[in-house]
Design a protein that fits this description.
Rossmann fold; alpha/beta; 21% strand; elongated; 39% helix; seven-stranded mixed β-sheet; 372 residues
Length: 372
């Protein structure tokens, strides 16, 4: 939720969840800490690593790498980020000895997430932080507190570019939308599908990440069909439900498609594509109306198999968590930072048959299974 929030909320509950991941064999004690890690020039000023962290690293003690996310119980996202943290920790332990933990409320709760981050900071439990803020720049204050305390911070999934973060890891939302649009248009062309108008909707049509995906989709689709006619543009996405539930999509898209028979393709910016597929089947429009979107569920993959959904994009939440964990280790062990603070990751495209740079449905199911 590039940059975004793209998920359905998990079952009720806001208790904090913490998962510890300790991987690998500790490296040798009395290790020299590079000067580039102790002090590092950043666009916002000089960063100085906390003396307590320098002392730990020099003694060969385990570094505490924390991944703070918006909701550990968010379907797919929470599980995939846990997988990515584990993989990142395995790689991190090749550079230094590290413990890696995922923290955050079970379901999104900004106050609880912020309170936990404050507690971890004040108790000295973090040596490097990878953080998913709830909204763009929403956690600027706490990020700056961490940086001022000598703790490196990397953001993932949602950025805080005004804060003292080192780098950001996520999709490039416009690029991801464009890739989706191109893949969708290629399938439309290959299958000889007659598309009248194309509509676009979102659970959060006013959010930058959603508008960027719609903007990219239009550009990608028009790269194949320059004269394609769109019912709406990226600034006027059809709202399909702020809670990102399938029922909300059914309630909003059913009357829309009924009232607009000229619309033959409906692009959805998030997992609401599952609901759009249900609407198409319920209205007995299969083979006449199609959809494409983002995120993965069993129902979305079933719809791809059936031909109702042409394309979906797995955002690679595991990759978004793995990359900053590895970068934490690279900084603490070597003082390395990315040359470009915007570290965009390639989206994972899923179509029925798969193809070059695409997964097929079977491969998509394997990824989904691992995230359960």
């Amino acid at each position: 939720m590039t940059v975004f929030r793209s998920h359905a909320l998990a079952m009720a509950g806001v208790a904090l969840a913490v998962t510890a991941l300790s991987v690998g064999t500790p490296v040798a004690a009395e290790k020299a800490v590079p000067d580039a890690a102790k002090a590092h020039p950043m666009p916002w000023g000089e960063f100085k690593l906390a003396p307590r962290i320098v002392k730990k690293l020099a003694a060969g003690e385990k570094a505490n790498i924390i991944v703070g996310i918006e909701g550990t119980g968010i379907p797919i996202q929470g599980a995939e980020m846990r997988i990515g943290t584990k993989k990142g920790c395995e790689a991190a332990n090749k550079a230094l000895s590290a413990d890696c933990r995922i923290v955050g409320p079970v379901n999104p709760d900004t106050a609880k997430q912020l309170s936990e981050l404050e507690t971890l900071l004040n108790s000295g439990q973090v040596d490097c932080l990878a953080l998913q803020p709830p909204l763009p720049n929403q956690f600027t204050g706490i990020i700056n507190k961490y940086a001022d305390a000598g703790i490196p911070v990397f953001t993932l999934n949602i950025d805080a570019p005004k804060a003292k973060r080192f780098a950001f890891y996520a999709l490039n939302e416009i690029q991801a939308g464009k890739i989706n649009g191109e893949a969708t248009a290629r399938l439309v062309k290959a299958k000889g599908i007659e598309v009248g108008e194309i509509a676009m909707g979102s659970g959060a049509p006013d959010q930058p990440w959603a508008q960027a995906r719609m903007e990219g989709f239009v550009a990608g689709y028009k790269s194949v069909f320059p004269e394609a006619k769109f019912f709406n543009d990226s600034k006027s996405g059809i709202p399909t439900g702020k809670n990102f539930t399938t029922q909300e999509v059914l309630n909003s898209v059913t009357p829309f498609l009924t009232a607009h028979p000229e619309v033959k393709l409906f692009f959805h910016t998030d997992q609401g594509v599952e609901g759009v597929g249900n609407v198409i089947r319920n209205l007995k429009l299969s083979g006449k109306v199609f959809t494409a979107g983002f995120n993965v569920s069993g129902a979305i993959l079933d719809a791809i198999d059936e031909g109702t959904t042409l394309v979906t994009i797995d955002q690679g939440f595991d990759n978004q968590a793995q990359a900053p964990v590895e970068q934490c280790a690279a900084y603490l062990a070597k003082g390395e930072t990315p040359a470009d603070p915007l570290q965009y990751l390639r989206p994972i495209v899923i179509t029925k048959a798969g193809g070059e740079a695409e997964l097929n449905v079977a491969a998509g199911r394997e990824r989904l299974k691992a995230a359960r």
